[in-house]
Amino acid sequence: MSDPIIQIKNVDKWFGDFQVLKDINLEVEKNKKIVVCGPSGSGKSTLIRCINRLEEHQKGSIIVDGNELTEDTKNIEQIRAEVGMVFQQFNLFPHLSILDNCTLAPIWVKKMPKKDAEELAINQLKQVQIDDQAHKYPGQLSGGQQQRCAIARALCMEPKIMLFDEPTSALDPEMIKEVLDAMVNLAKAGMTMIVVTHEMGFAKEVADEVIFMDEGMIIEKANTKEFFANPKSDRTKLFLSQIL
Amino acid sequence: MMSKINFLKPNKSNLNTFLYLGSFLFFISVLDVLLNSFFSLNITGFLPGFLSFLLPLILGFIGLYFIRIELSGIKQLDLLNKHINTNNFNAILSLLIIFIILKSIPPILSWFFINASFAGDSKDVCTGTGACWTYIKVWMRRFMYGMYPNGEQWRINLSFIALALLGSVGYFATDKFKKYLTLYYVVIYPFIAFLFIFFFISGGPVFFDFSYGIIAAILSIIIGFFIPSRFRFYYFLIVPLALYILLKYFIFYEELVELGKLDGLNWVETGAWGGLSLTFIISFFCLIFCFPIGMAFALGRRSGFPLIRYISIGFIEFWRGVPLITVLFMSAVMFPMFLPADFFIDKLVRCIIAISLFEAAYVAEVIRGGLQALPRGQYEAAKSLGMGYWKMHIFVILPQALKLVIPGIANTFLALVKDTPLIFVVGLLEIVGMLNLAKTNPEWLGFAMEGYVFAAIIFWIICYAMSKYSYNLEEKYKTER
After folding, report:
1. Is B289 left (phi over 0), alpha (psi -120 to 50) or beta?
2. Using CB atoms, which residue from A80, A104, A139 is nearest to B383?
3. Domain residues of chain B, as ranges?
4. Predicted complex ipTM exceeds 0.90
């Protein structure tokens, strides 16, 4: 357990003149579940988007599963294939059926035979309980179903790490639960997860560690019980009092 | 008091009175115009002139006012009121339109059919006041085939029928072959079409140097599959050109010259091609070429590499900035001056290349619009699944972007088809060019109108078919609810 799967060292990032990430240091060990929370604009989405290089960091180093993120495109593609990501807006491919959404990347990126990919996809869709919708198009599904499909799509690449970027923020309240359930199941199966979310109930249930960010800095990082029982910094206390 | 208001205002309770009276007045007004226009009878002739002229409008207006009864319960009447008789202003507009249609039918019928001449094969039969379709009939072959020799025209017919049949295989393909259809239409079908036109319609050494290029390209692509992928870039940089030079200057020279000819077919030079068949040939190849070129430049304009981006911007802005007629003129007159003396590219080929590049710039901008309309999340989702630039674009971005721009592309393609008559500046005469030639023939002076109407009908049919097809495509690829 001594070898962390993600190592983030002294990472700085600017959007123009605005510094979004300030000297971030973070290590995530295998099979750990991390929840990142904080007010909007605190850089938490940017942080996890840096991990699969949807955003570039300008200083410091990020090492994912032994590979450092550099300019090398092949390297980045390889890391992205190992790191699944679920977006706030689902971002399913609307021109493809649910099944094709799930099989596209395994077939063309991992060069999996079509039959195997479909079998895998149906299995993953079963896990999130939408295998009966496999031949519909994303536009025909509800938001919660779409998000579950997005989770299945990411899982079809058999990633080592899953990143969740506010997966329930764009959903109707009654659909949040079905997505969270899918995530809880995934956590119980032992996936390494980094979740940006405001769902504190989810954090209490599955997270090993909670990170609180504000103004581009990690303010507090503690194990879950500790974090909710006695937060150290005043900023965290204020945040928790507002959100709980 | 109540009954008086009711009397003036048609409603459901006095429906019968007003319905019959209104319908009668409306009927009289339409009948008057009808008799007037079809049989030159003026049943209101006994009235003073201006009253007789305005009477149908007044009667019709009153009639329509009387039958404007809301929720009458009579289905047809409600439909009529809802669509053409909602208020006084719309009633007048409806009446005027009905009158204009009634008035214009007889002269149009008479010009097109009743007083038109169809028989005979000389100008002498055209004595009526109507159209002289004899002129179109006599010149039909020229309008269709240009100066292509009469005895050889079966070659064009046969080629076009064969290509139409080959083009329709998509409708009959079974599921097993469905996945190869794109490949077929994008690569194989154009190549077959090229072979037909190259060997069959031309029957001679037309696209001379071009043919070496094609053979070199095909050979190098086939060999390219066996080259390890890391050398492939350099391979494609060098080998096609080398093959071309080898083919042209060293090996099989005589044999390849002979390859350009099929036994028993006379060579018909492209200068003699013309008419509608030339319109088809040019449109077909320009459509096929301008699409991939445009797509490449649309992607290039959004590329992260400054060199590629600036080249793309330069290309697009250059071609969009010059008029097509200048481009064609340059391709015909100036371009050959820059070429070595023994280097020969056929006029038709130069035309097709010029129009293709010109339209590609427009297609590029249309496609770029589609690319920009896609949300950033689509790019990010594709990237997050480990797809590289090409996979992302081929499987995720382009299918969606192209679907979005079907109307825009159809627009550009329609414009392209209608731009083809401009090739007259280089001396190629497609259907409109042939019309212009025919109308200046001393034996057939004075029939320009018939010719242009004929061309308009033909172009309308082609363009309408294309636009219908684009609607079908839109429907076919619609995956939203």
Report:
1. alpha
2. A80
3. 2-114, 136-148+269-480, 205-260
4. yes
